[in-house]
Amino acid sequence: MRENFEERKKMLHDRYGAISMEDRRQILCKLRKRNILMYRQLERLKHDLLRLESKRVQCELEGNLAQTEAVENKILKKKEQFLKVLTQNKK
After folding, report:
1. Rounded Cα distance, 58 and 67, in Å
2. Three-state DSSP class for residue 69
3. Whole-number average pLDDT of the chain
4. What is the pLDDT of residues 27-39, one digit of tens each?
5. CA-CA to 14 of 20 to 30 Å: which in 7, 43, 78, 86?
6. pLDDT over 80 (residue 66)
7. How far apart, in Å, are the Cα atoms of 27 and each of 14, 44, 58, 66, 70?
8. CA 85/CA 39 separation, integer angstroms
9. Cα→Cα distances 2→8, 22, 53, 65, 76, Å
């Protein structure tokens, strides 16, 4: 399960391209200036990703495999949304 999650996460990064931290910072800065609603949506997605990641680790430590898999699927969906919005605003 863990390997599958990592592979799917890597496939997302490959599909949407690698965005460096500097590029992300510039995209977020531009969004903050011209589209505050999109900027807040991205910030909310980042917050949700951090929350879900901590929940995934907690479920792994407890040994709850079914809930861990459900959380991993949610993480991948949120990550795809986040990367999609970043690449759309990269231009």
Report:
1. 10
2. helix
3. 89
4. 889 989 998 999 9
5. 43
6. yes
7. 19, 16, 32, 36, 31
8. 10
9. 10, 29, 13, 10, 13
Phi, psi of 89 (to 5 degrees): -95, 5
Tell which phi-psi region holds residue 19, choosing left (phi > 0), alpha (psi between -120 and 50) or beta.
beta
Q: Which of 81, 60, 82 is nearest to 69 (CA)?
A: 60
> Using CA atoms, how far apart are residues 75 and 83, in angstroms rounded to an integer?
12
Report the amino acid identity of residue 77.
K
Please tell me the pTM assigned to this model. Answer: 0.84
Calculated CA dihedral for residues 86, 16, 46, 31, nearest 10 degrees? 0
Q: Which amino acid makes up residue 31?
A: L
Residues in the chain: 91
Residue 20 is predicted with a pLDDT of 84
Question: Which residue in the block uniquely carries the two structure tokens 């861990």?
Answer: 68
